[in-house]
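Chain A, query sequence.
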Amino acid sequence: MSLLTLLFVIIVVALTVNVYAPLKSSERLMGLTFGLGWLTGELAGHAAITIVLITSIIAAGEGFEGFIGWVGLLATLMACGALARFHWQGLSIGPLVESSLQQGLGKAYLNTLLPHHRSAIPLGPDRDAMVLPFKRDWTGIDHLKDVPYDHANLKLDIYRPTRAVLNAPVLMHIHGGAWKIGDKYGQALPLMQAMTRLGWICVSISYRLSPKATFPDHIIDCKAALAWTKRHIQDYGGDPAFIAVTG
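Chain A, predicted structure.
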């Protein structure tokens, strides 16, 4: 087994182990393990398929020679199987989500929705998004970028249906990142698009980041964004009396 093949096996096994048991003891490495685990875990199905293809190419070229080679091949296939299992666990979460919804909202919660609202809600996973996770369909969505919200030179993005809406429910999103990293554009974009297509007005805000900003600057910024939204969202078709916050 060549050094390059050995390196491939080590990387595959390490990425897979990190998905199931990320390193938490080292603060310096936590960011790296989080990033790698995030990508590998979210794209576990794609990763498994890619590993199978690369492994097949290596095997066809007799890259797994000798006892060490067979051990490497076995380790790679086991890692691939573990990633496929992780992907399947994500697909099988549907019944648990449905059970939680019924527990919180009642077993007949779908019957309480108006027919046109009920028909607009997807009741299963988005297969197209699973195959092409980075593809974004902007059909029917008007995206207003970098709208100032009158505080510390900060801005927000507004997502609204291209069709005219009046007093639509509003969703304000606060991006993650432990108050240190992240931005208003990249995070929760599938959520923004899905809710906008259901007739909501969505607002994704920015806030000052640490270490330049210190607590409670971040909370103050979020409150300022909420206050701006309550004052101005009606101009964009939203209902200032109904603002849900996520993040």
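The longest helix spans residues 66-91. The chain is about 50% helix and 15% strand.
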